Each structure stands twice: as C-alpha cells, then as structure tokens.
Amino acid sequence: MQLLLNQTSPYARAARVTALEAGFGERLELVWSDPWNDDPTLLAAHPGNKVPVLITDEGIALSETLLICLHLHLLAGGSPLSAKRLQLAGLGQGLIDAAFGTVIARKHGGAVQDESVLGARRLAAIGRLLARLDQSSTLDAEDLDFSHYLVAVGLDYLSFRLPEIDWSAHPRLVAFHQRLLARPSFAATSFQ
Fold first, then answer.
1. CA distance 58 to 39
2. Chain segment 148-190, per-residue pLDDT in tens
C-alpha cells in the first residue's frame, strides 16, 4: 500500500495514524506529495489534487480521509462501528475541516478572512465542536479507533496552526489529547 501525503496535512496525518494503529506500518509506503504545486504523482492518483490518497494493494486509489480510515479499519478486521463512533468521527472531521479552512483562508487572504461571514462561521464551528466533543462519553473508551484519532489530530492541529484558540477550558479534551499523543503512532506523525 502507498499513502500519498504531506507533513502538515491533518487529513493525511489522521490516515497515517489509522494505518499505523491498524498494524499496516510495515506495509505502508509513504509517498510525500505537494498538492500546492500540481504534483504529477498525486494528480495521477487523484484528479482532485489533495492528500491523502491511499493506493491499495490492488492499485485502487482511495481519497477522502474518512473513507481511507474506514477502509483501513475494516481491512484490519475492525468491527462495525456504532452510530456513536461514527458521530465522533464526524465531529473530529468537522473540527479538522473548520481549523484547516481557517488556516487556508488566512494563508491566501490574511487574518482579515476571520471577519468574513465564512471566517466567522468556521471559528464559531470550532468553538461549538470543542464544546460538544468535551461532552462526548465516547472519548473515554479504551478500545480506540479512527474516530478517536480524528479528534486527537484535530486538537493537535489547532495547537499547531491556531495556537491562539485556547481550548484548555475543556479538561476532558485536554486529558484525551494527552493520552493519545503518548501513543507511538502520534509521536511518529507529529506536525513539523
């Protein structure tokens, strides 16, 4: 299997953490790609020109983080996910989406983008998502899966790219984040 990714994509990190946690570390060839420069390898794999892309052993290119994570979960023999686990995955993906959208808008339009209607909506969504995640009993589960990894990656991405968003008022999220960052899969994939 190949995983097309870049170092700072929270989407790619979530897929990579899931692959490592599912036991595919030895089988996973990392293909570093730059979606901002029309990387020909990435374009050949996925015309949408975004990471991550998982190339299966059969040569099928899978895109979209949730689909990649679900595929890896099932390939590793993971059990079907409950609606609560899927809800958690959606909340984690939503946190990543809102944070990433904020970062990209600022990169291309400056901090003034936060004052736009879309910018304000993204920032408000981050606040609401943090509050909802802090109330989720699913975070406390001992049997982790990609839903948990998405949340932890989203929190770590906030700390990495948007440190001015202080989420320390959510003690359950802080404890959850610290617990997951201690795992080897998170240490091996840290943002740089």
1. 22
2. 999 999 999 999 999 999 999 999 999 999 999 999 999 999 9
Grouping H, G, I as helix, E, B as strand and the rest as coil, residue 125 is helix
pLDDT tens for each residue of 73-125: 999 999 999 999 999 999 999 999 999 999 999 999 988 999 999 999 999 99
pTM above 0.70, yes or no: yes
With tokens 């983080």, the residue in question is 65
Q: Give the whole-angstrom CA distance, residue 33 versus residue 181.
A: 25
Q: Which residue has the tokens 């291309």?
A: 108
User: Judging by beta carbons within 10 Å of its beta carbon (0-12, 13-18, 19+), is residue 134 exposed, middle or buried?
Assistant: middle
| Alpha carbon distance 172, 114 (integer Å) | 27
Cα distance between residue 156 and residue 137, in whole Å: 20
Map out the domains of the chain as residue ranges: 2-75, 83-188
3-state secondary structure of 78: coil
Domain formed by 83-188, architecture: Up-down Bundle (1.20)
Q: What is the dihedral of CA 128, 130, 132, 133, to 10 degrees?
A: 160
Report the CATH number of the 2-75 domain: 3.40.30.10
- Are the C-beta atoms of residues 173 and 167 closer than 8 Å to each other? yes
